[in-house]
């Protein structure tokens, strides 16, 4: 009998106050698109994509996350872009966010050490997928930054059969308010 697995990743989710703003921007940007927009509640920034993970390994992932140390930091999204190979239309910071990159590195290192995680070979690029199976836009608008204070990160399960939002938060970890 095959071992049960789940498609998992760690992520940051924007606060509900930004969901509508981001969704409206995506809708305006994607007029005439033939692809698929992400559900408002699915908008997130992936920290570490884990892939199909045996259910028996989830406690290891949770234990690693229990030991992550990070303080809240500002996330600013203000640049649109498109990746041709996966046909993804995205929104991202126009500059690296050091605290975000440190969080990703900390998660990656600890997952590799303790949970036999195989780290991604490509460099990390923070982004929020807005549209899958998209076509590129001719002109991306300049926008005022959408800013939120990241207070937590989450372990998330992908539910591709879901008719509404596709992602389910398994557990949340609050950042420390003092260093």
TrEMBL record:
Alphabetical list of Gene3D superfamilies matching this protein: Cyclic phosphodiesterase (3.90.1140.10)
Active site: 44 (proton donor), 127 (proton acceptor)
Motif HXTX 2 mapped to chain: 127-130
The protein's Enzyme Commission number: 3.1.4.58
Motif residue range(s): HXTX 1: 44-47
Record key words, sorted: Hydrolase, Ligase
UniProt cross-references to SUPFAM superfamilies, sorted A to Z: LigT-like
Alphabetical list of Pfam families matching this protein: 2_5_RNA_ligase2 (PF13563)
GO molecular function: 2',3'-cyclic-nucleotide 3'-phosphodiesterase activity; ligase activity; RNA 2',3'-cyclic 3'-phosphodiesterase activity
Family: Belongs to the 2H phosphoesterase superfamily. ThpR family.
Name of protein: RNA 2',3'-cyclic phosphodiesterase
UniProt organism field: Beggiatoa alba B18LD
């Amino acid at each position: 009998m095959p071992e049960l697995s789940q498609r998992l990743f760690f992520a940051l989710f924007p606060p509900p106050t930004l969901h509508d703003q981001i969704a409206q921007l995506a809708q305006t940007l994607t007029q005439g698109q033939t692809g698929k927009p992400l559900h408002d509640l699915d908008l997130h920034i992936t920290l570490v994509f884990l892939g199909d993970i045996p259910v028996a390994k989830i406690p290891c992932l949770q234990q690693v996350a229990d030991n992550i140390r990070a303080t809240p930091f500002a996330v600013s999204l203000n640049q649109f872009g498109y990746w041709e190979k996966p046909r993804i239309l995205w929104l991202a910071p126009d500059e690296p966010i050091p605290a975000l990159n440190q969080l990703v590195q900390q998660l990656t290192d600890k997952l590799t050490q303790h949970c036999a995680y195989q780290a991604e070979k490509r460099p990390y690029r923070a982004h929020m997928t807005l549209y899958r199976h998209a076509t590129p836009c001719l002109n991306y608008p300049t926008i005022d930054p959408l800013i939120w204070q990241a207070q937590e990160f989450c372990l998330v399960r992908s539910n591709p059969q879901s008719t509404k939002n596709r992602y389910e938060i398994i557990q949340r970890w609050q950042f420390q308010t003092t260093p």
